[in-house]
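hey so i finally got around to running the thing on that chain from the lab meeting. sorry it took forever, my laptop kept dying and i had to restart like 3 times. anyway pasting the input first so we r on the same page abt which one it is
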Amino acid sequence: MKTNFNYVTPNIMSGIDELDKEKIQRFNDLYAKFKKKEKTFYRYKEKLKIEKNELDNIKQELKLLDQDLGHIKNTYYFKCSLVSYKTRGIEYFNLSILRYKQPPKNCSLGRAAVIKEHLLKFYKTNKKLTSRIQKDWMNFVKVDSNFGDTFHRISDLILENPLNFKNITINRHVLFPLEPFESKVSIPLMMTNKMRMNLRMMGYTDEELKHMRPEEGWEIIKKDNLE
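ok and heres what got predicted. didnt touch it at all, straight out
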């Protein structure tokens, strides 16, 4: 299919039956459409080739950077999973912290009823979160330990003990401490993850926290603990 039927002159066309005339016209219309699409295709094909080369270059650079930053990943990367086990017929739960190229660290949460009650006490000032816990505490822990405030608390623990993290004791009392802030502690120079977590529990949004000074947040937390 190298050409259309434009070589069919009016004189030739006049001697062709109507059905063939319609087919010739249809062919010419489709041929014009085909050539237009073909041109577009090759234009995009060339563009895709360029994009593919750029993608390969970026991928290679990412690979090299990932290798260079391996020590960061080895120290600070982690993800969490909720695991259960039975002892003498009783089901218990652990939060398993999985770090890169390291054995998992299991944090005791206790029985389902115990951890659920503990979570409800910890988040008692946040009706939205307590509602989620009441509905499905297991899903709440899974999500929060990988994307929420629990994730940040674990990250802070790793930051404080990067080399000895595997040896420190972590359980529900560490992950979800029920004791209030010590009032004699000095005010930090910047908003900490723990302060953000407490303020979120009290209903403050991330946008509000972004513009809040550390001393303001501290006063709000102290006032809430006294009430």
